[in-house]
Amino acid sequence: MTTEYHYLSGGISASEADRSSASRRNSQQQNSPSDTFDATDPQMIPAVLGPNNTRISAQTASDWDIRATWRPPAIPFDTTLFRYIIFWLIGFFALATLSLFSNDTSPFIIKTIYSTLIVLGVLYPVLIALPAARNFSAIPYLLFFAISATSFLGVTETMTGFHVISSNPAVYGLSFYGASLAYHVYLRSLTVSTAVTSANPLLLFTGPIATSAGLIKYSSLKRRLIHYFPYALIGFFFFKIVGAPLGNFFWMIDCTNILTSLQFAAIFEMFVYFNFAGLSLIVYAVCGIIGLKIPLNFQQPFSARNIIEFWRGWHISLSTVLKTLFYTPTRKAFGGTTALFIVYVSSAFWHGVAINFVIWGIFHAVCFWLTIKLLKSDWRLLTTILMVFAIVYGRMLFVDSDTERLLAKMTFDSTFPAQISEAKIPTIAYISLAMASTLVFLEFALAKQRLFRQRTYKYLRTNISQILILAATILLIQSDGGASYAVYGQR
């Protein structure tokens, strides 16, 4: 009598299994080498290891389904988070490269590591782990005004546009990552990916504020290079060739003559624009090339026809945060005019706690309000004139944190300053000033033309423009650098 047993997977008898094995062996001897090993034949398995590594016989092994091998459970892997971490590393090395063209000698490596540890090791775990932190409505505003508190306490300096360095590496990038975390906590959209993006070294260095960042999924590296590299070239040209030499005019800050003060304000406005927009374009390009899409922080602001349009194209990421945190909720409760003043005063305190910023915030709020009234009356030419006045006079208020000197300027002193006749300004500074003035004029005068209409610097991304920019960069790169630092990246 034949003893029968069953395989776990098939349920066939031993005799049937023997006949099947013999048939397979005959077939393999005809079609394959004689030493072919059949893992499904118990007779061809002299011994195997069983549970706890015990040695078992072939007959016992035949009771098991040796075809069904055990595999460890798959561990879920967040490829999106991994890519954001890679972006952080690339941003770190990109910042190291960019610092070679900057005269900022601060230890950015230590500062970057400090900021990353604070964001990912302290703030993010606390904001995520504590339900009270997520539900406490004041948390976003505490994060946003954290930089104001450090300014008030003297830990950080005011952000006037001049070169300032904090001696405390723990507050490096606080203005940017504080606003970014505040924005995401308010919208309840804070994730580990957004936290890693907020701590990206490039964004800590000069912004923009990480209000949104997504992966570019459907574009090859070649296509990304073709699209984004022109932005990098434009950004470097803005920052190093056009903006930096304007630093040779900084001595004019000491002049209290109203005409000289306004002249300096106009020059400093162009310096801030080409410096900040240039660095923002470089960051935009680097992030785009590696596959991370961030907002374009500047969109040809001088193509505007009134101060409202101007602010829509200037430091867009900060405008987004201000609108979300302050304008929208305040407008619902108190109306548009009150919301407008709160927005500008909040923006002033974000830049620093000082008298000149308070005056600047109120001044711009009034100009914004007047523009709304003039537009309702269809006096568009007056809104353009008001915009020019608001930009230049507003920059004069913004740049000077010396209250006594600022008040002297506001009295419209007409005394001719002796410093002008004694000043020795290098030729490269005048070349830079001519290029800056030309670019601003083109943005304004040709705003409705095809290459200017979308306000994405398309007129500078044409082939002929790229060749001219590259040639100018090569010719002027060795000239006196002037002020090669990030105007918004020192705290």
From TrEMBL:
Name this protein carries in UniProt: MBOAT family protein
Its membrane topology: Multi-pass membrane protein
Keywords, comma-separated and alphabetical: Membrane, Transmembrane, Transmembrane helix
Species in which this protein is naturally found: Blastochloris sulfoviridis
Pfam families named in the record: MBOAT (PF03062)
Location in the cell: Membrane
Membrane-traversing stretches: 81-101, 113-132, 138-156, 168-186, 198-216, 228-251, 271-292, 349-372, 379-398, 427-446, 467-488
Any one cellular-component term (Gene Ontology): membrane
Ranges where the record places region Disordered: 1-42
Chief location: membrane
Annotated Low complexity bias: 23-35
